[in-house]
Amino acid sequence: MTTAGGEDLEALRRETEAALAAAADLRAWDAVRVATLGRSGRLTALLKGLGQVPAERRKERGAALNRLKAELEAAIEARRLALEQAELEARLKAERLDVTLPPRPTAPGTAAEGGIHPISRTVEELTAIFGAMGFAVVEGPDIESDWHNFGALNIPEHHPARQDHDTFYLPPGPDGRRPVLRTHTSPVQIRTMLTQAPPIRAIVPGRTYRADHDATHSPMFHQVEGLVIDRAITLGHLKGCLIDFLRAFFGIRDLPVRFRASYFPFTEPSMEVDISWNRRTGELGKGEDWLEILGSGMVHPKVLANCGLDPRVWQGFAFGMGIERIAMLKQGMTDLRPFFESDVRWLRHYRADPLSPPSLAEGV
Ligand code: 2NL
Known about the structure:
About 40% of the residues lie in helices and about 20% in strands. The protein contains 11 helices and 9 strands. The strands form 2 sheets. Strands 1-4-5-9-8-7-6 form a 7-stranded mixed β-sheet, sandwiched between helices. The chain has a two-stranded antiparallel ribbon with strand order 2-3. Helix 1 (about 5-20) packs antiparallel against helix 2, helix 1 (about 5-20) runs parallel beside helix 4 (about 55-95) and helix 5 (about 120-130) crosses helix 10 (about 325-330). 2-{3-[(4-chloropyridin-2-yl)amino]phenoxy}-N-methylacetamide binds near residues 190, 223 and 296.
């Protein structure tokens, strides 16, 4: 029954507001919305009935209905916002994560996920150790000019490394010179000295290329070289740095290390670095035998001068090693070729857990 006084409208407002207040979740809220504003809703029915209202009362009645409609729509929307906010807060409370928890360890052989390739893992370990000593990681191009790869490094024109059967050359460029696939990562240190003012502490891990292929040589392999340039750098710094590195990398606190005079065109003096091992058992750190592990030396004055550094002011040391070689020694591998054959059985065996990156705190 409709009246001009609108008691029925007042009742609808009160009842709808009470129902909204009682709606405890969005489902109950939606039921109130449909029962009020839906196709067969109470307010919709009243609006439909406007036609039957006598003409003299219709205008007043219509205005009252429209006011009520706007009020109820606002009340319904406000309740929706309040319920959504409450639901979000409840979810945030229930779903709280402790992001500081350590990851769950995965049992060997059970994880279906991927792993870190031993080359990448070794680079991560080198980076952790040298990073702790203040070295930055530097990268550069794989395709190099003859000058950056050989000339700047004091490698003479007739040197065997420059022969066609040792190095991959590309067709000559517009200047008539043949670019090379870098045979070591040294050209990156050359570029670093040319563009960065000392002091420099850099390690350069990366791919290198030589025309060689057998059980211990791959035409593409990886090297890491290191470079330190500063005032008054001595052989003592070189020795301390490399002894610390080798002991951390192989995880042997008192690993015996031997420095043996050698020759490289880009260092003077030059030294080969050996670690102790047992030839019969292959065990590192104890035994009568020495194993060559890396090359090093004081940066040759000519190389410093080639990079615009005055050798009377700046000195430094440099070193280089094969990443596959040190990875093989650490893991007891005997063959280099599987590194690049993508045999999933080998990869699964030697992969590292991506959730356990190397950390110096636990000893690499
Ligand atoms: C080895 C020996 C070495 C270097 C690399 C180097 C780089 C510059 C200047 C001077 Cl820019 N030296 N690098 C020095 C000594 C040895 O590598 O047996 N690598 C596998």
